[in-house]
Description:
With 524 residues, the protein is of the alpha+beta class. The chain has 2 domains: 35-143, Sandwich (Immunoglobulin-like); 146-507, Purple Acid Phosphatase, chain A, domain 2 (4-Layer Sandwich). 18% of the residues lie in helices and 27% in strands. The chain has 9 helices and 27 strands. The strands form 6 sheets. It has a 7-stranded mixed β-sheet with strand order 12-11-10-24-25-26-27. A 7-stranded mixed β-sheet has the order 15-16-18-20-22-21-23. Strands 1, 4, 5, 7, 8 and 9 form a 6-stranded antiparallel β-sheet that branches. A hairpin with a 3-residue loop joins β24 and β25 (480-488).
Amino acid sequence: MDRRAFLTAATAGLLLPQPATAAASAAWGATPARGRTLAADPFTLGVASGDPSTDGFVLWTRLAVDPLSGDGRGGMPARDVDVDWQVAADERFTSIVRSGTAPARARDAHSVHVELKGLQPGRDYFYRFRSEGRLSPAGRTRTTPAGETPLTFAVAACAHYEHGYYTAYRRLAEQEPDLVVFLGDYMYEYGPSGYTALAGRVRTHTPGKCETLGDYRLRHAQYKSDHDLQAAHAVAPWLVAFDDHEVENNWAGPVSSTGAPGFARRRADAFRAYYENMPLRRASVQGAVLRVNRRVSWGTLARFHLLDTRQFRDDQACLDGVRAGCDDRLADERTLLGADQWRWLEGGLRGSDTRWNLLGQQIMMAQRDYKVGPGREVNLDSWDGYAAERTRLLGSLARTSNPVVLTGDAHMHHLAELKTDFDDPDAPVVARELVASSIASDGDGYRDRTWIAEALQENPHISYIDQRRGYLMARLTRDEISVDFRTLDYISRKGARARTAHRLTIPATTGAAAAGQAGAPRAG
């Protein structure tokens, strides 16, 4: 089986868990576990990897023999379970480069996070797990390169389970990216039909709104049980960051959007379940804080600066929502990133020596006027609600080498020019913002050409909008970034094709974009 055949099998769902055979056991160099064997397959939630470095990455799995058991424990016994793991240089696992055993602890919902070091830079690796006589599916991951190696990466966000099937994840996996950047709303906290799409409910959430640790664990298990999502995780390492729905719609720092009591406890439970179900490093867990703002470099070619636009922000101005006439949103002291994260980002942008700098973040950065005609209405949950800090950030990007902003949340593809003054048509463009539509949220999607034309007219710095579901696929070299806006015609049933609805290429500039001339894109 060559690499492409391996990936085809993975995305087709053929590399399924199975009992350990004698041949497989020999490849592990040990006999299968005897006694206390789990009654059913514990690898129902798949495998994943993330946060690659030049010499390693994180490997993840979570044991669950009954993933939808109502207490969120996955039907697992109240004891720790040993899990063997292997990393190989080939897809047949004939060249094992690392192996070991990690405990899947009951207190951690039987999740496993293995942090690898000491591997070779810029190469593919394959991994799998074994526990009590059962083998997991195999996954492919990779280390980051040491030099200026080209990169193909996907950008995705917003995957409401009830709103549609995850065909977009399947199509993403079939394109075999080197890396997947996921920018929030991986799961949704609503109870069944708590947030409905136009076409109604295709699938049904687990009972009740997520409020306890057990609720969040169960909801994550439901999402992870989807084989299309498992295929996307198995094909490449992921960089993940949360937005609001991993906790509660439009939460802000310590503030619940609904004023619900006990929000600090609920947020802590949501953070714990998120870590248990994601390929994150242990260093991300810092007491009551789950640190997802971090930097990952792709050799000397690019640096990803992942932001957290929820945990450290001030509450939304003027009671949140899409509103006109909210002067409070313009206050200089309002912060979205918080003081510590701001200093971290500023230092990282100043000190970056890579050719490209990619900001992965959750909410629309470009100014976005929702009102047709005179006046202006903006979304106070987005950067429009924190306008002064946005201006300062765009000033920093103007001094940064080839910045590109990657965004989720909006449930529509957008391509926007970022300026320090959006109301001045002659203001220089300091960066481009690429907004990925949703994987599933809001259902099938549509193309309201009249609405799109009006939105583009009201916002001349935005040049493309598409209301269909999809993701971005980008190819990055020293000289340019080429981006495909991928869309699907439907997700209310399975099997839709993915098409490139729009393509553009952004050339690199020589040095920083501070000269005020971020590379002009070329549409495909």
